[in-house]
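FORM 12-B: Structure-to-Sequence Request
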C-alpha cells in the first residue's frame, strides 16, 4: 500500500512540481524519476505481480533514516504508522473516485449530483428540487441510503435513451390548446420561481402556440409528504376543481379559467399592504408564497372566480371539489408518475421533441 499511496501523493503534487521545474529543471528530473518508479510498482500491484523495484523500501528508508539515528525505538511504530496511513490514503482516494463517479452519473441521468438532496447540488440550480426524506439517522441507514442512491441512478439511466413521444404518460393536466403541434408536457409547481421563469420564456417564444401542450400542476413534496411551498397544494387543487367546471357564459378571457389562474400567478402582480400601511406590488407567486396565509390565499382565489363570472353556488362547489378525494387522487397520480416513472428530481420538468428536460425552458 505504501507504493500506491506514494503514487497518489506524487500525482497530486505533479502540478506544483511541473510549475517549479520551469525554474529548476533538476527538480523535475528527480521528480520524474521517482514518479516512474512509483508507477512501475503500482502497475505490478494492479496486475497482481510482485513489486520488484524496492520502491516501498526506498520510501520507508528515506523517511526513517533520520529516526534510526536519533530515536531507534520509534522506527517500528513509525513503520506501522506508514502502512496504516498508506491504507487510509488509498481507501480515501478510492472512495473519492467512487463518489465522484456517482455524482457524475447522477448529474447525467437525474439532473442533480445529490440524489437525496437535489437542492444541495449547485449544478442543478435551474430547478426547484424534489428532495427525499430527512436523511439517515445512523450509520446503518446511511449505508442503505448510499445503495438506494445507486439504485435510483441505474433505474434512471435508461431514461436518457427513451423516446418520450412514444411513452403513455397518463397525467392529469390542463390542455393549453388543441393544434397539430407535437405533444409537449410541462410539469410545474405554482410556488416554484424556476417554473415562473420557464413559463414566461415559453410564453414569449411561442412554445404554447407551436406545441400541443399539457400543463401538469404538481405541488412538490419531500419524502415525508411535506409540501415545499406555501399554498401550492391549495392552488393546484383549485386549478383541477376549476377545470372540472364549465366556463361561465359571461367569461370573455382568451384562456380558460384554469389556465388564467396559472397565467396570473406566473405573470401578474398583487397589491400588498404592509403593516405600516405602505402599498406595494409583488408577483402573485411571491404573494402566495410569502404573504397570504391559507385563508387569505383561498379568499384571493375565490375573488378571481367571482371575477371570471362563477356564481356563489359554483364557487362553493369549486371549493368543495378542491378538497375532494378525486382531486387528491389527481395529485397522487401525478406524483407517482413524476417520481417513479419519469424519475424527476427537479421541477419544472418538460417533455418535448421526444426528450425529457429538467430546469427552465431553453428554446432549441
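FORM 12-B RESPONSE
SEQUENCE OUT:
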Amino acid at each position: 500500500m505504501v507504493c500506491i499511496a506514494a503514487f497518489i501523493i506524487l500525482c497530486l503534487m505533479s502540478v506544483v512540481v511541473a510549475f517549479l521545474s520551469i525554474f529548476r529543471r533538476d527538480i523535475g528530473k528527480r521528480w520524474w524519476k521517482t514518479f516512474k518508479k512509483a508507477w512501475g510498482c503500482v502497475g505490478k500491484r494492479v496486475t497482481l505481480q510482485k513489486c520488484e523495484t524496492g520502491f516501498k523500501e526506498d520510501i520507508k528508508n528515506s523517511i526513517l533514516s533520520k529516526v534510526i539515528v536519533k530515536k531507534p525505538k520509534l522506527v517500528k511504530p513509525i513503520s506501522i504508522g506508514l502502512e496504516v496511513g498508506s491504507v487510509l490514503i488509498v481507501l480515501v482516494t478510492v472512495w473519492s473516485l467512487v463518489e465522484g463517479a456517482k455524482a457524475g452519473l447522477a448529474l447525467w441521468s437525474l439532473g442533480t449530483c445529490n440524489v437525496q438532496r437535489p437542492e444541495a447540488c449547485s449544478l442543478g440550480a435551474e430547478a426547484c428540487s424534489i428532495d427525499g426524506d430527512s436523511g439517515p439517522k445512523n450509520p446503518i441507514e446511511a449505508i442503505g441510503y448510499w445503495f438506494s442512491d445507486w439504485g435510483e441512478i441505474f433505474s434512471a439511466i435508461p431514461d436518457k435513451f427513451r423516446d418520450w413521444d412514444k411513452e403513455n404518460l397518463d397525467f392529469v393536466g390542463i390542455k393549453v390548446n388543441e393544434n397539430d403541434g407535437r405533444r409537449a408536457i410541462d410539469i410545474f409547481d405554482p410556488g416554484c420561481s424556476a417554473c415562473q421563469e420557464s413559463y414566461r420564456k415559453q410564453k414569449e417564444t411561442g412554445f404554447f402556440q407551436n406545441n400541443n401542450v399539457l400543463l401538469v400542476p404538481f405541488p412538490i413534496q419531500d419524502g415525508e409528504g411535506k409540501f415545499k411551498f406555501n399554498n401550492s397544494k391549495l392552488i393546484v387543487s383549485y386549478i383541477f376543481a376549476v377545470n372540472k367546471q364549465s366556463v361561465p357564459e359571461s367569461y370573455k378571457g382568451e384562456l380558460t379559467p384554469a389556465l388564467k389562474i396559472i397565467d396570473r400567478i406566473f405573470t401578474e402582480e398583487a397589491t400588498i399592504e404592509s403593516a405600516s400601511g405602505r402599498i406595494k406590488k409583488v408577483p402573485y407567486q411571491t404573494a402566495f408564497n410569502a404573504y397570504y396565509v391559507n385563508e387569505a390565499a383561498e379568499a384571493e382565489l375565490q375573488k378571481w372566480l367571482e371575477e371570471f363570472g362563477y356564481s356563489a353556488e359554483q364557487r362553493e362547489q369549486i371549493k368543495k371539489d378542491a378538497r375532494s378525494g378525486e382531486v387528491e387522487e389527481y395529485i397522487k397520480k401525478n406524483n407517482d408518475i413524476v417520481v417513479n416513472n419519469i424519475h424527476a428530481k427537479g421541477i419544472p420538468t418538460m417533455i418535448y421533441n421526444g426528450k425529457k428536460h429538467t430546469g427552465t425552458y431553453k428554446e432549441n
